[in-house]
Amino acid sequence: MIDKFKAKFVEESNDNVHDLEEALLLLEKDTGNKEIVERIFRAMHTLKGGGAMFGFNQLSEFTHHLETVFDLVRNNKLEITDDIISLTFESIDHIKHMLEVGDVDDEEELENQQSFIQRVQRVANLEGAVVPKTPVAKEEAVKDDGSKTYLIDIKPNEEILRNGTNPFYLLDDLHAMGTAKVVAYHEKVPVLSSFNPISNYCQWQVVLNTSESVNDIKDVFIFVEDECDIAINEIGAGNLLTSTELVNKIDEAARHQKPLVKDELAGLAVSAGDSETKKDGKKKVQLKEHKISSIRVNSSKIDELVNLVSELVTIQAQLNLFAENDGNPAVLALAENIQKLSRQLRDNAFSISLIPLQSELMRFQRLVRDLSKELQKDIDFVIEGGDIELDKNIIEHLTDPLLHIIRNAVDHGIELPDERISNGKSPKGTILFKAYYSGASVIVKVMDDGKGIDPEFIRNKAISKGLIDSSTELSRKEIFELVFLSGFSTKDEVTDVSGRGVGMDVVKKKIGEIRGEVSLDSEIGKGTTLTLELPMTLSIIDGLLVRVFNNQYVIPIANIEKIYAIDSVSFGKTFNHVVNIDNEQYPFIDLRETFETELVNKGTEQLILVKYEDRRVGLLVDQVIGEFQTVVKPMGRFLKKQENISGASIMGDGTIAMVIDTNRLIHNNATKKYRTKN
Amino acid sequence: MTSIISFLINGEVFAFDTLKVRNILEFDKVTWVPNTKKYLLGVINLHGNIIPIADLRMMMGTENAEIGQDTAIIVVSDDDKTDSLIGLVVDGVKEVFDLDEASLKESVINGNTGLVHTFTGSIFKNDEFIHIIDLSEVVQEIEK
């Protein structure tokens, strides 16, 4: 049970850490923004509180020190510096680590942690010695820092001590929330002879100034609600405890054991200063909490939902088929309605599994920031189209390649500031991350304005690595394609940051796994652009249903250029596998041959021209049946080796059509031919 | 005590651990998948999942295995994941019974006809030997 709560805490804390990182990145750009500081403080506070509650004591302790720093910032006693931000980033990484491992007792680890805490403390203490940057607020002048002052009545009943509650802890908790002044009323304490040591005779009043909400104050009393009468009344905005009049009143109440009355204090608050009423608007902004507009669902549940919907779509197609054959108008109408509903349901279910790119972008921002600091480069990371949504499975596959691409841009692309200035560029480099929809695909571009890549350099390198022959003529595009070949790494020495020999070939492979394409373009002195073309979702495609021998296959429409009847084209006579269409020659693949089936030419075959990289290749099939939207299902672990087929679709009548991966098919075919030639 | 399911291949009785078995189906239309091993007959649609079908008879060395009235598909999974489901074609399913592990004898294998060589063991029941197949070897062979 506890483990479950712990897991939940870790999950939520990761969100908090995420929020913290995001806020910190914002703060870096706008160091004076108190709202962001507030947000950071809040996230840390939650981490601290939760950590202690769920047994992450070290985390809690560590966060406490960090929180202290931001408390100083919040109270204008400390100014945000680059050092603080860097330290906080490091701390966040440490927090992540602690969330992962929990409390540790490994000595080395503890020592590490201790030295970290000391660094954090140093920042806090250092500033304690420095004269506060803003003058101390004068008496009577109520400072508007978004806080409020409350009068809290605590009247525990006599039995409270029997439950092991120590009311002083409650007071301590209140003190921890801000500044508080406590008045104890002890009139009811009887003479010693009738004094029962396990009964409580006291009650308290607390004037508390805090920026926490009323609910947070209530939380302090959450375990003693039944044994206590608690009244929390707001007496005014700002820290009224700086008003001497109020303090005097409190002292007086203590002396005379005469309880404070809310209205009296509230009256004081009004007279204490009229400045805060003007600032009301601003205060609201600061106290605004994030509204919950989404719920957390286990991703496997979503997968299941999408699967079920896919099945429903299949069954619905069967129903349609049946209704058409049956011819009963009532059944037809029903089938049509169900079709409409299931289509909506399908769209809905698929949109649930789409998540915005934004969720991953922060990691990239962080990466650019950390790396550029390390490499002493000055880089602006600009994001466009962070709200573009992609299937979560695609995003999962996308992170690593993108990290690699961005790392490359920072390490190899952007020059050092001096070099940039001498090249007549602004010292600050820019990496633009841009995402947009294009048809059924999403295009992601990573553009840097760095030094660019010389095509000739790539060519020579490829020759020296034996990847191409020195006599090979290559187009500009083809040259840039070389970068994606395995074993190609342009930086001569291996740096810590990127270029461990594995590089763009892995990127290409990874992107290929999610049916995406990657290409590179570059101009010397101007920069490099990497373009990824990705499908929006993996599981549903528009396909052309074709027949090869006895089987049905689906070819993704996105790859198809044109369809020709066999009698409208003429086959080259000299080479076996070239076809002439409209005075152009294209290579073609006879699918019956590739699939090793019976090959009977009836003269009714059709040729489908598909795109392959920037070429066109024909696929010869027995028959084109029509266009279908289909749900692609995986073929399972045992058929992974079958590369020509990327999945299978269940047709309306329950039969199976295999989805052809044209890119792989053509690629495999080309390499096979190449091999046989040798 | 494990329970096992026995089935026929070319007149001999073999068995699997029932815990690995997900479904038993009649042999129906199988959609052939190009460019695969000969004993992989293709795929079927089982409750919306695509399941590959391997002819266990061919794997065990039977040539020209025919499809008859009793021919059945035993759908198994070695790690309980949908991704690893595979249907194995046998000549007929016999019965499910509890295995008394004490009666388990070492299987005597002579020759090397098929692709499956290791057995968990054999038992003698109702005048016939039942050989218990080690599913992991079958799975490994298919995955190769």
Automatic annotation (TrEMBL), chain A:
Coiled coil: none
HPt domain segment(s): 1-102
Primary role: Involved in the transmission of sensory signals from the chemoreceptors to the flagellar motors. CheA is autophosphorylated; it can transfer its phosphate group to either CheB or CheY.
GO molecular function annotation: phosphorelay sensor kinase activity
Residue span, Histidine kinase domain: 307-538
Phosphohistidine modifications at: 45
Keywords: Chemotaxis, Kinase, Nucleotide-binding, Phosphoprotein, Transferase
The keyword Transmembrane helix is assigned to this record: no
Gene Ontology cellular component annotations, sorted alphabetically: cytoplasm
GO biological process per UniProt: chemotaxis
Name recorded for this polypeptide: Chemotaxis protein CheA
Gene3D superfamilies: Histidine kinase-like ATPase, C-terminal domain, HPT domain, SH3 Domains
EC number: 2.7.13.3
Catalytic activity: ATP + protein L-histidine = ADP + protein N-phospho-L-histidine
Sequence ranges assigned to domain CheW-like in this UniProt record: 540-671
UniProtKB/TrEMBL annotation, chain B:
Alphabetized Pfam families for the sequence: CheW (PF01584)
GO biological process terms, semicolon-separated: chemotaxis; signal transduction
Alphabetical list of InterPro entries matching this protein: CheW (IPR039315), CheW-like_dom_sf (IPR036061), CheW-lke_dom (IPR002545)
All copies of domain CheW-like, residue ranges: 1-144
SUPFAM superfamilies assigned: CheW-like (SSF50341)
Gene Ontology CC, one term: cytosol
Domain of life: Bacteria
PANTHER family: CHEMOTAXIS SENSOR HISTIDINE KINASE-RELATED, PROTEIN PILI
Name of the protein in its database record: Purine-binding chemotaxis protein CheW
